[in-house]
Amino acid sequence: MGLFERYLSVWVGLAILAGLVFGNLMPAVFALVASLEYAHVNLVIAVLIWVMIYPMMVQIDFSSIKDVKKSPQGLILTVVINWLVKPFTMALLAWLFFKVLFVDWVDPQSATEYIAGMILLGVAPCTAMVFVWSQLIKGDPNYTLVQVSVNDLIMVVAFAPICALLLGVNDIQVPWETLLSSVFLYVVLPLVAGALTRKKLEADGDSESLNKFVSKLKPWSMLGLLGTVVLLFGFQAQTIIDEPQNILLIAIPLMIQTYGIFFITYYIAKKMKLSHKIAAPACMIATSNFFELAVAVAISLFGLHSGAALATVVGVLVEVPVMLTLVAFVNSRRSKFEADTGNETVET
């Protein structure tokens, strides 16, 4: 894990502080940036989101999908948790906390927007950071590629309908045109661009050219993320300063969701007797979120200043430290997991 990835929570925290400070000192500048919109898409944020997402899509090797027949159980677990369980548990927790448990602490409009943001997080399975988690837990890198590749293909067709369903259940009006255009702009286009770039680099015959290209892009991806965080918190600086407790309120159900989904997946993987190198990445993929996509869609649907956008950014702040604790848990239980499932212990 590189410097940026290892201390991502620190950088995000600093970006949040920068956004709050500059948002209060220079509100006119942030108002100008917020006004740069076309068809409900903020142009500055769109560029930053693309800077984040494109390097991730270049890493996806769709040719690896053909290898799924070698061990389909792990992929089945990943798909079921990501698309049939995780979105619905997130929607349930969001509703429980902001419509029942926190109802006296958050105004109804903000509560509805927070729920929307958390639903968007729950419906967006992770793409990029999964490779980091898989490496740290000594997962099968090729199988991780298969899982991520299939997830991305499903996301193209399933993200919008599931979002619309869960938002509608929570009485949140969703403009289908905006939702579909967001999926096209932030999933389909970068996915195609990444695939074409990868094909071009692989066609050159230099096996290292792809790795070198991705390595060059990684710092830009992190800068895009941090720039987005600065802008989002700058746009909402006054609201956050007036109501700082809301960050904590959003974080609580997000943490419960993250730990809960992990242990559900971990338990099922053990019952399925999956090998650790396949089960561990499956748990990480199921647990983490494609928060870059969630941020982009929240902004497109609900606006830069919305509680939905805020909730997705809090997801960034929460996810990395939580995932690092889960990496430590998985590694500490590796030998026992292999023994319980009847697989050979992998030497580290």
From TrEMBL:
It is a multi-pass membrane protein. The keyword Metal-binding does not apply. The keyword Cell membrane applies. The chain crosses the membrane at residues 7-33, 39-62, 74-98, 114-133, 145-167, 179-198, 219-241, 247-269, 281-302, 308-330. It is found in: Cell membrane. One of its GO terms (cellular component) is plasma membrane. Keywords: Cell membrane, Membrane, Transmembrane, Transmembrane helix, Transport. It comes from the Bacteria. InterPro entries: Arsenical-R_Acr3, BilAc:Na_symport/Acr3, Na+/solute_symporter_sf. One of its GO terms (molecular function) is arsenite transmembrane transporter activity. Belongs to the arsenical resistance-3 (ACR3) (TC 2.A.59) family. This is Arsenical pump membrane protein, putative. It comes from Shewanella benthica KT99.
